[in-house]
Specification:
Elements: E1 3-9, H1 15-23, E2 30-34, H2 41-54, E3 58-62, H3 67-74, E4 80-84, H4 86-96, H5 100-112, E5 118-124, H6 135-154, E6 157-162, E7 165-170
Parallel strand pairs: 1-5, 1-6, 2-3, 2-4, 4-5
Antiparallel strand pairs: 6-7
Helix pairs in contact: 3-5, 4-6, 5-6
Amino acid sequence: MRKIVLILGGARSGKSTFALHEVSAIKGEKAFIATAEGFDDEMRLRIEKHKEERGKGWITFEEPLSISTLIQNIRDSYPVILIDCLTLWVSNIMRTGFDFNDEVTRLVDTISQKHSALIYIVSNEVGMGLVPGTELGREYRDNIGFLNRKVAEAATDVYFMAAGIPMKIKGDMKIE
């Protein structure tokens, strides 16, 4: 059965930790698609910390742009693919001038196709705060909101994280 899990929340809300916890019991090597690029010391430290948090059993693919192609290439080779995160991916798309709408369509089509992997996707919810003061900031916020909505439509399960607490907002809601 195709399963796509989207995890949304604010910065430092526990999204990545929750995703790692959810898939930790799955046997076999897991694929981690990292969209971050270490342009400065602080970001390089964050990347290293995330690598340490994953521990063993993860194969990391550092792919800031072509995540759809990468997913197509690996989705039948790993029981789990974790993409962290779409927020940085949007920034990368905008910075390089790729066509945002084409990339969103390609990603949603790719994750919606038949595959054997459990796909977890992490993204920030940035539209709940202040309206950005610049045109670029507003475009970025709007792009992430549009992308999150499209991925949520394709997802089988959606969680919203607040203060480290996961709230399921789409999917089977039965209490265990």
